[in-house]
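Input sequence (179 aa), recorded before submission:
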Amino acid sequence: MMTFRPGTLHHQVQNVKLKNELSFKKIPSDNRMSTLKSLVSAGKRLTHEEKEYLRKNHPELYSKVMMIEDELRSFKQSMHKARTKDEVKRLHLAKVGQFADEAMRISKYPGPSEAKSDRLFFTGARSAAISDAYIEFKYSAKYSRLPTEQELIEKERVKKALEEKSKERIRKLKRMRRV
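Predicted structure, token format:
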């Protein structure tokens, strides 16, 4: 495990992860599943040990957790590729809208209520994970460096004006040389 300088954010995160791993080992085995379900439903990332526990004891939930992580990884890549803050916001809103539509369709589904609640749980967990990732990205240095679309438009307008001024100067110089 990589160690970080004490007092840094990385060090604090590392300490929290270590405490979580130790506390997971202390949880009685009958309470572990409910603890893991509440972590998943809140959109929190699971430790390697917690995933291993799920893989061995609850493969169906483990596969759902892995699907959530894949979707989360894809969403994070999309946010990092975004050119503006507005684009990041649209990505998030599109995902949240997708989850709302999904939840609406599930609730209208005429199947058994246990299947509905299981699918709603999974949709809620995905939504929570995506929202957490969006909030985390919103406070990142990468996001703070992104311009808004309005700033991009203004930058382009200024660039065109400068190009036009430069062209005008070149024309004046050419005229002066001819004289």
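Checked by second reader. DSSP finds eight helices and no strands in the chain.
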